[in-house]
């Protein structure tokens, strides 16, 4: 083959002793090709420098073999775990993820979705169901499958976790330890139905014991370690000081605990800390963080499964729901109330 000519499907088929149809299938639906044949085709394609022309394939098939995913932020171990599992599943079935983030800004999310739709993605994945009507209308008009993660509006496929229950579980546990003076550090509640549901769960558990949750006990912050520290500074100024602090994301709880320890406050003897998410490093802190496990990897796997099923069979019901469990994980950052 001339060094100036791009390699073609026919070249790969000839050198791998397979048919053009088999090579095409290996590129678009690798799960349908025998592993040894697939490996041989991939080795030949790599040696020749063959790269599929996705535009040409899309013109023929009507599909781009891409899935658009919009998440609130890429600076999150939870969303990273979800995206990694989705990428693994989609890649095994010949699809590539196109990923965008909006930093919790509804206008940015609308812009990202418009870009993905204009690129001809075969499906869309979003986080939550709380967005302006104009964005919903745009998604509906796109005519592509939609999967919602964590929360979501009815009428569309959803992979859900009970954020309300997560807030309720961790609060009830602290109440059972004797804590009645709680402080809450949460993400900004506007345009974030997951954070709002967690705070509502905290409030509901307190109401069962006739304990109010004043606005002064809730500190809204960006979802980061440094913001957790800032939130803790605010809560420690309360009189009397909280005996326990809940971060509605582990990053907030960990940042808050670091701030307290930096001030010489003993954890958990003087103040308890608990989070929600169960990020990997929560178990390796000193003390290890009590939290609620949100199955981020399973969210990604189930989302990919729903989308692949939908792409394979457009006649499936459009409102399928997968509900994943949340579980309290008790560690060493919480203890009985001593004040």
Task: State the gist of this model.
With 339 residues, the chain is an alpha/beta fold. The chain is built from 12 helices and 12 strands. The chain has helices spanning 9-15, 20-28, 35-48, 54-61, 77-92, 106-118, 133-142, 163-176, 193-208, 225-236, 250-262, 296-312; strands spanning 66-71, 96-101, 123-127, 146-150, 157-161, 182-187, 218-221, 244-247, 272-274, 291-293, 321-324, 327-329.
How does this model look, in words?
By secondary structure, this protein is an alpha/beta fold. It folds into three domains: 9-52, no CATH class; 61-162 and 296-324, Rossmann fold (3-Layer(aba) Sandwich); 163-294, Response regulator (Rossmann fold), CATH 3.40.50.2300. Helices cover 44% and strands 16% of the residues. It has twelve helices and twelve strands. The protein is elongated, with a radius of gyration of 24 Å. It starts with 8 loop residues before the first helix and ends in a 10-residue tail after the last strand.
Topology, element by element:
Blueprint: H1 9-15, H2 20-28, H3 35-48, H4 54-61, E1 66-71, H5 77-92, E2 96-101, H6 106-118, E3 123-127, H7 133-142, E4 146-150, E5 157-161, H8 163-176, E6 182-187, H9 193-208, E7 218-221, H10 225-236, E8 244-247, H11 250-262, E9 272-274, E10 291-293, H12 296-312, E11 321-324, E12 327-329
Parallel strand pairs: 1-2, 1-3, 3-4, 4-5, 5-11, 6-7, 6-8, 8-9
Antiparallel strand pairs: 10-12
């Amino acid at each position: 083959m001339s060094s100036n000519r791009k390699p073609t499907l026919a070249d790969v088929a000839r050198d791998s002793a397979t048919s053009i149809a088999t090579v095409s299938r290996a590129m678009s639906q690798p799960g349908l090709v025998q592993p040894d044949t697939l490996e041989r085709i991939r080795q030949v394609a790599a040696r020749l420098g063959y790269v599929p022309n996705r535009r040409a394939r899309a013109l023929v098939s009507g599909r781009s073999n891409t899935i658009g995913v919009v998440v609130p932020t890429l600076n999150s171990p939870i969303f990273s775990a979800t995206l990694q599992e989705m990428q693994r599943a989609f890649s095994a079935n010949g699809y590539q993820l196109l990923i965008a983030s909006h930093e919790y800004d509804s206008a940015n999310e609308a812009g990202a979705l418009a870009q993905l739709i204009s690129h001809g993605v075969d499906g869309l994945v979003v986080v939550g169901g709380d967005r302006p009507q104009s964005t919903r209308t745009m998604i509906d008009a796109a005519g592509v499958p939609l999967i919602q993660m964590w929360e979501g509006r009815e009428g569309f496929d959803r992979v859900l976790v009970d954020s309300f229950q997560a807030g309720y579980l961790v609060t009830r546990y602290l109440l059972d330890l004797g804590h009645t003076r709680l402080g809450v550090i949460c993400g900004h509640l506007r345009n974030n139905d997951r954070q709002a549901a967690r705070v509502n769960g905290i409030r509901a558990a307190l109401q069962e014991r006739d304990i109010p949750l004043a606005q002064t006990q809730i500190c809204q912050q960006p979802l980061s370690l440094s913001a957790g520290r800032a939130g803790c500074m605010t809560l420690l100024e309360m009189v009397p000081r909280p005996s326990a602090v809940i971060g509605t994301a582990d990053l907030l709880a960990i940042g808050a605990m670091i701030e307290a320890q930096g001030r010489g406050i003993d954890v958990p003897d003087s103040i308890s800390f608990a989070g929600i998410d169960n990020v990997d490093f929560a178990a390796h802190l000193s003390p290890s963080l009590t939290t609620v496990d949100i199955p981020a990897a399973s969210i990604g796997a189930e989302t990919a499964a729903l989308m692949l099923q939908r792409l394979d069979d457009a006649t499936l019901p459009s409102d399928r729901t997968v509900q994943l469990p949340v579980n309290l994980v008790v560690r060493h950052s919480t203890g009985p109330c001593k004040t």
